[in-house]
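Table S2 (continued). Query chain:
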Amino acid sequence: MSVAGEGKRKPTRARRSPAAATKAINLALQGGGAHGAFCWGVLDRLLEDERISFDGISATSAGSMNAAALAFGLIEDGRDGAKRALAAFWKRVGEVGAASPLQPTLWDRMQHDHSLLHSPMFLAFDLMSRVMSPYELNPLNINPLRRVLEETIDFEAIRRHCPVKLYLSATNVRTGKIRLFGKEEISVDAVLASACLPFLFHTEPVAE
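Corresponding output:
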């Protein structure tokens, strides 16, 4: 049996090592509650692709929470640890949210409307947030998100052993300028400052 081109071997590609095949990327994680939940799914998929590694992460608001959970998980157990840490964080967010009095009414559920525009509790809360400052509306500065972050993320581990370049951003209310937190400064206060909604939460005091 003859083969066309017999005797002329095609050049073979040199097999690339796993390290050479890995592409390092930088991530910019945006804010927004729903965007943050969507970003969790994107990160989960990226973590499944071993051709990709993370070099640096810049994040704000909900993105800062994802970034902190991702970094902590990478410290704990690499890619699998990061997937578990992200899932644990968002599971706790869902559990705390389910216990909130701000829930859609039966009519909202029937209409598949997630805006809460027919919820008496939400409308009353929205009105109060417009006429009262957070210091009047929530004098004890109760923020369920703080507890969720403290329960699911070890910030001391991030400060000591963060495997990626990590930068979180917040707004300095005195100057209106961006305040960047490097990995040595990452704390629950820094994440809450990044995610602070001015009409709902107290400003977070952090070192200049």
